[in-house]
Every structure is written in structure tokens, then in C-alpha cells.
Amino acid sequence: MTIIDSPSLVTAGRYDELNIVDEISSFLALPAERVDQLLAADREPIKAAVRALNDSVRSGDAGALYRQQLLLSRIYATIMKIPDSATSEGSIIIHEVTRLLEIATIAAEDRWIEPGTIEAAPDGGPAYLSWLKGLARTHPVFKHPYYAEFINRQASRDDLRTYVIQESLVDGRFDDFLAMMQVGTVGAAKMEIANNFWDEMGNGEPEEVHTTLFNQIYQVFDIVEEELEAAMTANDLLSGNLAVLLCRYRHLYPEAVGYLGMTEWLAPDRFRNVVRAWERLGLPDVGIVYHRLHVTIDSRHAAGWFHNVVVPASTSEYMRRGIARGSLWRLNSSARHLDERLAQAVAGT
């Protein structure tokens, strides 16, 4: 990818939905003010190209979906790590591109929700929580055969290596999602998120920080950061993007509660299958510490999350709708993701 830093190289009219990912990506490592200076004359053509990309996604173009989520993932990378120098974070034009991508992604996830589902939710309290869990238990993603059958009984060493790479955009930075979403919370919800975060931080023991434990899996499989992006599918990228999207905006806090809560509730059963596969293959114990730990810890986290965050918030219609929406986003996107993984695994790709 070429980084552009000369106005003479910026030519109006060169942007279209096929090249917009590389074009925008080439500016992400430049200071925000410089980006806006270089792209000032191309602001509208850039937005038009992004809108065209989003339109192609809505029409069912799988390649466009990959490009859309790849661009959003690359933009999000500028806010998810501390850079060595100035980046495009704060650029007005990059923000406009980001919002176009985010709004299209939100609309797409909403289209996967069956009409009337959210409206059927009880008014709140334990009945709401039971209804929410019922959505998951009756959803096709619950005990999905990708985990229950393929990972558990058939997955090879290479299959588990691919699985780890695909999960890195969520499992590999769950602590950051918690840190982002807790801003502005109070009372029991803030304490629950804080307790969850402290567990992710290894309860103060650096060698037990969960991202550190997850990264030990990379060592087992000799996974290097440079190969991660190229291995991602559109659905891999979408999973990571949805988590960032929901946790970074305060008005999407209810959706984040639903999305992350459902993620933690589903994790223990899924991770049991990963542990079984790991043991079946006789892989080094150092690489499975993360998953063994989360079989038990996520059960506790999910229970605390539901009772200390979801139930108290469910007295508000705004919160009920958002929590249900975020939960369904997680269930539906995960189902599509696992369907894709299973099809690829069976086909040997």
C-alpha cells in the first residue's frame, strides 16, 4: 500500500467503489490535518465512491461486503492501538467515510432481524431476561455444529490455527471493548463491567492478562501479525467491526450490552469444544490456558452481566430495545459467520 503525501498525486475523479479501500487506506498513516488538506477537493467524490460500495453490498455483492468491512477494519485500527506517530484519527473526511460505512453496517444488521421480534419483548425484569435467553436458545447459532461437531470431533491442527486467527478480532481485544463501553456508566452496571475488566486484566497479574494468554496461542501456531488481515473473511472482519462500533458510541451502549453479554453467554459451551479438540490433538498446554479459563469465567461473567447490567436496565424501553437489538446482531452475525466457517471447513478451504 502506497502512502500518499503530495497534493500533486491526488487527482479528482479517480475514486470508485473498486479502488476506494486502497485509496483511503493510503492516507490512514498521515496526520489528520494533512489528510484533510490533501483530500479537500475530492471530498464529495470519495463519499460518492463509499456510497456506491455500500449500495453494492446491499445488492448482495460478496466482494463489496469484504471491501466494505476491510476498509472499516483498517480505519478502526487507527483508534484501537497507540501509534508510533500521528495518524488520520480526527480527520473530518475519514470520519465522514467511517460514518457512511457504519450506518450501512447498522442498516444491514437490522435487516436480518425478523419484524416484530424486538417488539415482542416483555416490559422488563426477570421476564425480559428469560425472553432474551430464549431468543438465543431457539436460534440456529445455539450449539452450532461448527463447534459441537467440527471443532469438537474433526478439526485438525491447521483448522485450529485458522480458528484462532479468525477469532482474534474479538477474543484478542475483549478487554479494550469493556474499557470503551464502561464510559458513562454508574452503579451496579459500572461495577459489573469493572469486575469483568479486572478479570480480563488477570486480577493485576501481568502474566495472567487474558490478551497475553490469548497471544500464547499465536506462539504455538507461529502466527505473526502480518498474516492476520490477509486471512480474514468479510464475516471475520464484520465480527470485530461490530464490537468496535457498538462500544465506541455512547448512544449504542444498550446494543453493546446485548452484543457483549450474548458473546460471553455463548462462549463457555463453544470453548469446551475447543478444549476437547486441543486435547484430542495433543497440542501444548500453554496454548489452551485462555480457553480453559473462559469456560468457567465467562459463565460467571454472563450471569453477573445479565443480573447486574441487563435486568436493571430493562426497566427502560430504550434500553430494552437496544439490548435486544445488540443481542440479535450477535446471534445473527455469528450464525452467518459459523455457517461460512463450517462450509469452508467441510470443503477443505
Brief synopsis:
By secondary structure, the protein is mostly helical.
Question: Describe it for me?
Answer:
It is a single chain. By secondary structure, this protein is an all-alpha fold. The chain contains 16 helices and no strands. Helix 9 runs parallel beside helix 13. The protein is globular and about 55 Å long. The two termini are 27 Å apart. Mean pLDDT is 92; it is low at 6-12.
Please tag this protein with its features.
349 residues
Strands, total number: 0
Q: How helix-rich are the residues, as a percent range?
A: 55-70%
**How many helical stretches?**
16
Average residue pLDDT:
92
From the N-terminal CA to the C-terminal CA, the straight-line distance is 27 Å
Give the uncertain stretches in residue-range form: 6-12
Strand/helix succession = HHHHHHHHHHHHHHHH
Shape verdict: globular
Compute the CA-based radius of gyration: 21 Å
Q: How would a crystallographer describe the biggest sheet?
A: none
Structural class by sheet pairing and helices: mainly alpha
User: What is the strand content?
Assistant: under 5%
List the helices and strands and how they pair.
Elements: H1 20-25, H2 32-39, H3 43-58, H4 62-77, H5 92-111, H6 125-137, H7 145-154, H8 157-171, H9 174-181, H10 187-200, H11 210-221, H12 228-231, H13 234-248, H14 253-281, H15 289-313, H16 317-347
Helix pairs in contact: 3-4, 3-5, 4-5, 4-13, 6-15, 6-16, 7-14, 8-11, 8-13, 9-10, 9-13, 10-15, 13-14, 13-16, 14-15, 14-16
